[in-house]
TrEMBL record:
SUPFAM superfamilies: NagB/RpiA/CoA transferase-like (SSF100950). Its EC number is 6.3.3.2. GO terms for molecular function: 5-formyltetrahydrofolate cyclo-ligase activity; ATP binding; metal ion binding. The lineage of its organism: Bacteria, Pseudomonadati, Pseudomonadota, Alphaproteobacteria, Rhodobacterales. It comes from the Bacteria. This is 5-formyltetrahydrofolate cyclo-ligase. It catalyses: (6S)-5-formyl-5,6,7,8-tetrahydrofolate + ATP = (6R)-5,10-methenyltetrahydrofolate + ADP + phosphate. GO terms for biological process: folic acid-containing compound biosynthetic process; tetrahydrofolate interconversion. PANTHER family: 5-FORMYLTETRAHYDROFOLATE CYCLO-LIGASE, ATPASE INHIBITOR/5-FORMYLTETRAHYDROFOLATE CYCLO-LIGASE. It holds the Pfam family 5-FTHF_cyc-lig.
Amino acid sequence: MTDLADIKAAARKAAFARRKAAHEAAGPGEAGHLSEVLAGHRGVPMSGYMAIRTEISPLPAMEEAAAHGPVCVPVIMGRGLPLKFSRWQPGCALREGPFGAMIPAVDDFIEPEILIVPLVAFDRRGGRLGYGGGFYDRTLEMLRAKRPTLAIGFAYGAQEDDTLPLEPTDQPLDMIVTESEVIEIGHGVSGTG
């Protein structure tokens, strides 16, 4: 098991370097394709995220989506637990959550049916390398057991890696949106096929 942990750590380190370079080179408007994708799902409860470090920011797309339906952001409840999602509005009062991500000052938990998922690296088969806490894997597994849940990875194209070290517990993405393209994954909306 340590071998896989070491491989994942090395893959994360390389992916962080690629993401940092892409973030530094990025201009405004990276969320354009994400806004287009979300326009096809107006009114469906969705989760975005408040970007930290060099993550690509979904904020412009979240602001557009909030005009049409509920938008929330993830809240880490504790190690080993699934995420909860607190309702977010443009301009709402925020506070710092675990790991420095901003979350709404007042918790108003809802369950999203679409999740915009941050990541460290992705592949074109829907594989995702995250930060290593397993929060999104646990959360997607829980939500997908209840209803079809669309997981959209949002990343810079430079974060693509065809050699991701994946495990059976890793929940697949249904789509990946980058600053330059929308990558559809062929396993179906629920991510279980």
